[in-house]
């Protein structure tokens, strides 16, 4: 008699079990494997575990302390995959205020009761920090950085810059090695019911949002000098007169903050204040206009850049410059308004190590044509035609010129502009953005201009763009980001500001080839809505995140 039974849809003949035992075992194993695969798939199909392998973190403005804007480990976004048919808007993360800071990204963060997530951190002008699942937008945690009974700051009579409130403007910075799970550092501005203003430094646990290291730390400072807002021989930091606009810099265990004015409203001076990342205690302070005024550090929400030796580079705004020089060629009173500055962080102090100021600095200061509107990029080592190695940095501001400085000898102040390379009238409008660097090319997006790629050959910048976009970028121009897989599939990402903002993607080696923009899709599928003035796109793990006036829009393969 033939006997049979059914298991999982498979009919098994038991009559000849001895001879067919191998086949039966194969069937059983196959069924078990299929069942196990189904269970694993059902457990991991949620998008928050889409990529459990570590991807490149974005822990600081423009990806690195050199401020190159590069993510060279992006394998999902390619020239073939980024087009209107296969790429577009995937979601929108709603928050409680305007997003002026660049969103940051961490892979594989253990969130209590949520498991391991890829996390996007978003800071708002309503003084909140959010953690979202970076793949599906699921809310993970949110904290307000306002003190009890406090509100965000008003615009301080400077509606043009940050409106309608000032909370968190500067891009935070993350250190994954500190605290129980890693720390995100944020500066928030607020005021109490009596009208007193506060600037505070916070360190938040990246997994929970909890305050770390006894924070927050209320920011106060004084510095020897008799300039604006001085008393008894010291310049005093007045929190209501400043906004932390340029992004935070984390360098060798110190969080550096830099301070801009509200629409050049006096009194103000040029402050750089450093805090120990492990304790939040103030560890160093420098004022670059201590006997005068002005010299604020805005850089259009860019960031101080740093090199591998621990030197910091900034462009500061119009302000007092002492053209009476000491024996070393430095301003005799220590006032460095409208300068390209190199700061030393050695021996636990903060000092001006070198600088460059243009010969017509007085004229530029008088006409508000200063350097301080642009950002700095520290370039990798470059060789000239004779094989000599040069350490260079690049910056530009309101005077339409580009300045390429030798970091080992910047040129100081001289009637001949003793600078490594100065390209005059390179831009049709001011630079209110930070350039990007990739594979021997600098990318600039000036106000009202196309984004242009300038090649570097023999340690000299070409004065003619190698390639440029077909469309113009209105005020404030654009701060581009670069994604690539090594040197392959390089894509330049940039946001066009305006009543209706637009995300653009270009072939970075040929900017005339636009791969995608968010206005291409039918039925307004990918449109961003109203733009943000200085937003920088964040590219991570096959996604592009764009801050807006109401939240963050996520783009990626559809």
Radius of gyration: 27 Å
Q: Which stretches are low in confidence, meaning pLDDT under 50 for 5 or more residues running?
A: 1-54
| Overall morphology | globular
Question: For the terminal residues, how far apart are their CA atoms?
Answer: 57 Å
Number of helices: 2
Question: Which short descriptors sum up this protein?
Answer:
558 residues; mainly beta; five-stranded mixed beta sheet; 37% strand; globular; disordered N terminus
What does this structure look like?
The radius of gyration is 27 Å and the shape is globular. Among the domains are: 1-45, no CATH class; 145-302, no CATH class; 304-433, no CATH class. Helices cover 5% and strands 37% of the residues. It contains 2 helices and 45 strands. With 558 residues, the chain is mainly beta. The model is unreliable at 1-54 (pLDDT under 50). 53% of the residues are buried. The strands form 12 sheets. A 5-stranded mixed β-sheet has the order 3-39-40-41-42, with no helix packed on it. Strands 9, 10, 11, 12 and 13 form a 5-stranded antiparallel β-sheet that branches. A 5-stranded mixed β-sheet has the order 23-24-25-26-32, with no helix packed on it.
């Amino acid at each position: 008699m033939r006997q049979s039974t059914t298991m999982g849809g498979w009919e098994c003949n038991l009559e000849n079990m001895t001879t067919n035992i191998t086949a039966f075992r194969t069937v059983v194993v196959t069924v078990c494997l299929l069942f196990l695969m189904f269970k694993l798939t059902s457990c991991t199909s949620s998008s928050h575990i889409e990529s459990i392998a570590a991807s490149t973190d974005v822990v600081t403005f423009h990806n690195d302390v050199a401020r190159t804007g590069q993510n060279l480990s992006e394998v999902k976004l390619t020239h073939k995959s980024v087009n209107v048919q296969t790429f577009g808007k995937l979601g929108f993360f709603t928050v409680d205020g305007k997003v002026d800071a660049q969103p940051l990204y961490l892979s594989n963060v253990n969130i209590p009761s949520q498991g391991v997530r890829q996390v996007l951190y978003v800071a708002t002008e309503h003084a909140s920090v959010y953690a979202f699942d970076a793949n599906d937008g699921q809310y993970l945690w949110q904290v307000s950085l306002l003190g009890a009974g406090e509100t965000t700051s008003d615009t301080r009579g400077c509606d043009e810059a940050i409106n309608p409130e000032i909370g968190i403007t500067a891009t935070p910075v993350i250190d994954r090695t500190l605290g129980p799970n890693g720390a995100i550092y944020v500066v928030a501005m607020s005021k109490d019911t009596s009208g007193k203003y506060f600037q505070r430094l916070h360190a938040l646990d990246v997994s929970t949002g909890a305050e770390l290291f006894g924070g927050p730390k209320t920011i106060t400072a004084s510095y020897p000098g008799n300039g604006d807002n001085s008393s008894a021989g010291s310049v005093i930091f007045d929190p209501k007169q400043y906004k932390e606009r340029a992004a935070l810099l984390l360098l060798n265990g110190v969080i550096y903050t830099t301070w801009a004015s509200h629409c050049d409203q006096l009194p103000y001076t040029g402050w750089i204040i450093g805090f120990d990342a492990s304790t939040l205690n103030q560890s160093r302070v420098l004022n670059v206009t201590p006997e005068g005024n002005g010299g604020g550090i805005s850089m259009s929400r860019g960031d101080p850049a740093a090199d591998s030796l621990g030197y910091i580079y900034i462009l500061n705004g119009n302000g007092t410059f002492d053209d009476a020089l000491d024996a070393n060629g430095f301003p005799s009173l220590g006032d460095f308004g409208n300068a390209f500055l190199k700061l030393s962080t050695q021996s636990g102090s903060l000092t001006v190590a070198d600088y460059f100021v243009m010969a017509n600095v007085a004229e530029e200061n008088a006409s508000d044509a200063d350097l301080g509107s642009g950002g700095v990029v520290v370039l990798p080592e470059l060789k000239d035609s004779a094989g000599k190695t040069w350490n260079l940095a690049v910056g530009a501001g309101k005077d339409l010129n580009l300045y390429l400085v030798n970091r080992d000898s910047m040129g100081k102040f001289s009637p001949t502009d003793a600078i490594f390379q100065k390209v005059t009238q390179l831009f049709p409008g001011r630079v209110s953005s930070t350039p990007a660097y990739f594979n021997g090319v600098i990318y600039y997006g000036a106000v009202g201009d196309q984004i242009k790629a300038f090649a570097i050959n023999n340690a000299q910048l070409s004065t003619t763009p190698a390639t440029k976009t077909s469309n113009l970028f209105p005020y404030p121009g654009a701060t581009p980001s670069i994604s690539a897989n090594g040197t392959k599939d390089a894509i330049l990402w940039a946001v066009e500001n305006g009543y209706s903002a637009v995300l653009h993607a270009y072939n970075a080696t040929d900017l005339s080839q636009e791969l995608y923009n968010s206005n291409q899709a039918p039925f307004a599928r990918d449109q961003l809505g109203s733009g943000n003035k200085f937003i920088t796109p964040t590219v991570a793990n096959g996604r592009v995140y764009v801050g807006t006036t109401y939240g963050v829009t996520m783009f990626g393969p559809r």
